[in-house]
Structure formats: C-alpha cells, structure tokens
C-alpha cells in the first residue's frame, strides 16, 4: 500500500510542486489538497491520509491550530509534517510543540521531500535544523527539567535520547550503539512512556527544552 498524503497550503504553485514530486514515486500517493487549515479536519476524516504536509502560515487557520485540532479531534490521526519557507520561524517550533511530527523547508530538494514523507510515515523523527534546536533551548523551562528528572532514564535510555535528538533513525541508533533495532525500539518506547511524550518529536523537544541536550 502506498503512503497517502494530504497537501495543505494556501499557495497553489506550492501544492502543485509537492504533488508533482510525491506522485512521481511508486510508493507515495497524494490523495487530496486543501488551501487552508480550516478544511483539514473534514478532509482527514474522509480521506484518512497517512501524512499531512501542512503549511505553517495560512490565512484562516494556521498550521499550528490545525495541527492541534487534528490531534485533538481525529481518532488515529495522521503524521503531520510542517512545511515552511523559513527554518528559524518561531511558528515552526510552536507547530512542533503542538504535536507536528517533523519539519520541511519549501525549498527542499525533491529527494529530501520524498525522504521526509517516508521517514515520518514510518514513525521516525525528522532532523531539526540548528535554528529550531536553538529555539527549543530558548524555551527551556523548569517544567521540562522536572519532567526529565522524574523520568529517571537509564544510562542506555539517555544515550538513545541523545541520538534521537540528533535526528538518527532506529536503524542508525542501533548501528551507533551496536545493538539490535528491536532493542532500540524498546528503549524509544520506554523513553516516550517515562516522559509522557506522544511521539519521538515531543521527546526530542523535551530534551532540548530541559537542557538535557545542547543545541550546539
């Protein structure tokens, strides 16, 4: 079964470009388009896409609120990739905090776009650019630090979280630590549970906000 994608952007040319790139792949299918975040929920419920490529800035309902709405109201919600023009955009960071699963620049090369969709569909984290990691560090707070302290991660779980924060996939983490992929998956699951994180992205944000991982 192909990975199904819903495109949400108020610029028709951007949607057309993304559609051309993604539909050229045998394992990816664009199943719908929307010009504003306000149209996302009914389309997600009707089309049941695996991934939503969501522009962060839109006129009626922006990508941040649309992301929150989808995750709050849709059963088994799709993965959400934030798509934007500027990598140091605070809107991007807020969308990731709201629950988006990854980040993609509109100027990304076709191969990067395809890779991002596949990666997020598989449940892996997209690598945050340095600017977004810095924003996470700026938003560091006591609550995030307290969560990390209460989590009482094991030494191996801490190592896995640091590698997750670098954007490594489970396979890459397994190679780095010289363990099996299933072992890494088990550690990731334990980390998410201890941090109360919805997914890998939320765990990585907590790691940066708490100061556990440095953006440098």
UniProtKB/TrEMBL annotation:
Key words, A-Z: DNA-binding, Phosphoprotein, Transcription, Transcription regulation
Coiled coil: none
Gene3D superfamilies per record: 3.40.50.2300
Positions of post-translational 4-aspartylphosphate modification: 55
Domain HTH luxR-type stretches: 146-211
InterPro entries reported in the protein's UniProt record: CheY-like_superfamily, NreC/VraR/RcsB-like_REC, Sig_transdc_resp-reg_C-effctor, Sig_transdc_resp-reg_receiver, Tscrpt_reg_LuxR_C, WalR-like
Matching Pfam families: GerE, Response_reg
Domain Response regulatory: 4-121
Matching SMART domains: HTH_LUXR (SM00421), REC (SM00448)
PANTHER family found in the cross-reference section: TRANSCRIPTIONAL REGULATORY PROTEIN NARL-RELATED, TWO-COMPONENT RESPONSE REGULATOR
Protein name: Response regulator transcription factor
Organism from which the protein derives: Streptomyces polychromogenes
């Amino acid at each position: 079964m192909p990975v199904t994608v819903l495109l949400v952007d108020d610029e028709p040319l951007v949607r057309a470009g993304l559609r051309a790139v993604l539909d050229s792949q045998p394992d990816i299918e664009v199943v719908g388009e929307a010009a504003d975040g306000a149209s996302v929920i009914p389309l997600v419920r009707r089309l049941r896409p695996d991934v939503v490529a969501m522009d962060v800035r839109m006129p009626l309902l922006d990508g941040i609120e649309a992301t929150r709405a989808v995750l709050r109201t849709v059963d088994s919600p799709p993965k959400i990739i934030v798509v934007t023009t500027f990598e140091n955009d605070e809107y991007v960071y807020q969308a990731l905090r709201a629950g988006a699963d990854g980040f993609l620049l509109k100027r990304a090369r076709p191969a990067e776009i395809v890779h991002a969709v596949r990666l997020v569909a598989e449940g892996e984290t997209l690598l945050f650019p340095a600017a977004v990691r810095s924003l996470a560090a700026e938003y560091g707070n006591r609550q995030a630090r307290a969560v990390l302290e209460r989590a009482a991660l094991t030494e191996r779980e801490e190592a896995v979280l640091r590698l997750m924060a670098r954007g490594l996939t489970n396979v890459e983490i397994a190679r780095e630590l010289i363990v099996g992929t299933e072992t890494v998956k088990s550690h990731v699951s334990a980390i998410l549970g201890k941090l109360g994180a919805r997914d890998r992205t939320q765990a990585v944000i907590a790691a940066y906000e708490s100061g556990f991982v440095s953006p440098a």
